[in-house]
Amino acid sequence: MKIAIDGPAASGKTSLGRALAERFGCRFIETGKMYRAVALGLLRGLPLDAVVIDVAEPERFLLNGEDVTDLLHTRELDQASSEVGTRPDVRARLVELQRRIAAGVDVVMEGRDIGTVVLPDADVKLFLRASPDVRARRRVDQRAGDDLERTLRDLVVRDRRDSTRTIAPLNPASDATIIDTDRKTLAEVISEAADLVKERLQGH
Ligand code: C5P
Q1: What is the per-residue pLDDT for 108?
Q2: What is the residue with the minimal CA distance to atom 11 of ligand 1?
Q3: What pTM does this model have?
Q4: How many CA atoms within 13 Å lie on the side-chain side of 37?
Q5: What 3-state class would DSSP assign to 131?
Q6: What CATH number does the domain located at 2-193 have?
Q7: What does the pLDDT read at residue 29?
Q8: Ligand 1 atom 19 nearest Cα
Q9: How many CB atoms are located within 10 Å of the residue 16 CB?
Q10: Cα(156)–Cα(105) distance, rounded to whole angstroms?
Q11: Less Cβ crowding at N or C end of the chain, within 10 Å?
Q12: For atom 20 of ligand 1, which residue has the closest CA?
């Protein structure tokens, strides 16, 4: 079973992905953290060729062997990761790593291009939508001390970069189910997505 979840920043992919992974006994992989780890390596002055990313259980991200998971969710890396995400050489390496991790296991993978590029044959493809205002509010709730206006501005910049890059732009796959989360609770989104997964499982 492979479940792909895509959508813009702070649309609820991680909360949904973790819940589905737990319910259906899958490994959960947040691919945005890989882009963040590459950006951290480049900010530290490493050339791309010297940046080695690995993922360890449970949900730990390694940069050249160092567990950097807890360093990845900063404002600086929000923007730096979306900049490195426009680089074809970075994407080629990470897509290859993501496919290797997903091979032969049940997995829930979330990001921007999972249903379109990384796992085009995924059993279930979900694409989450939410308005920028709602996403900015959610992000501020997650990161104590962040300013709402600034968070909204940052999200809009990132959205534009993610949607307009020439390689793997943020887009729903043609066979993805789109879930608009603005007026739904997380529990409702999880329940809707879990029903869809169950349907697919029964169909197999
Ligand atoms: O999901 P998250 O916000 O942590 O991702 C950080 C950045 O990494 C995104 O803004 C996006 O530019 C990039 N990314 C990507 N493709 C993915 C996952 C993330 O381009 N599959």
Answers
A1: 98
A2: 82
A3: 0.96
A4: 26
A5: coil
A6: 3.40.50.300
A7: 97
A8: 32
A9: 25
A10: 35
A11: C
A12: 85
